[in-house]
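PROTEIN ENTRY
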Amino acid sequence: MPEIKLTFDAADDYDRFMGRWSRAIGERFLAWFGAPRGARWLDVGCGTGAFSELILRSAAPAALSGIDPSPQQIDYVRKRLPAHTFEVADSAAMPFGDGAFDVIASALVLHFIPDRAKAFAEMKRVLRAGGLVGGYTWRRTAESDMAAYWPMMRGAEAVGGQALRSATVPEGTQEGMRASLAAAGFVDIATTEIEVSQTYASFDDYWESQTRPSSPPGRTVAALDERQRATMRDMLRETMPAADGRVTYSSIALAGKGRKP
């Protein structure tokens, strides 16, 4: 099970691959997060802006900023949400002053951050005293993977392929998330699991969305030979939960939140 460093520079591909999952989980997360209205928000790892749009829709922020390491993603979200501030930046070295934000959140990003201790320290630095921090990643351990692309990865492994995954991080469990937030000095810590289901119009719709070239399953499938690829596709077509030709299945994210003392 090789772990790889992934970057998402094809914004349209990423939104087609992950946007629906990000929005579904994000809605549930924000309802649980309980952030105040009229706050100054920072979206860490904003990507295409799917989570930023949810913040604008449900949290009525006084101001919204976002950072992402990909210039292509930032170009995309600036066009999508031109009234707000998005910058190319590293989560471990943020270009903001101390206490600049009331609320900081990170959606499906923690498993891509190499030094999460530094990232949590930076979140604490740029958060005001009493401010709220939170985020979510896939529920993943060495034995279990509930990311949205889990059927593709298991299918590839079943035909002899190697599933290309981002690193498994401690924050993929409730115990690990609590420990990381506590180690960074946050208090009033809480964690939860968020399970969501998505439905694709057909198996072909599902396959096309999950094999985008820049995505982990897309790269995994591209590395298979033609025989493996055909076998995997036929196997998934037969075994994926389906009704009336549609494909429906669930994934699970692990969420955590805390406050700066």
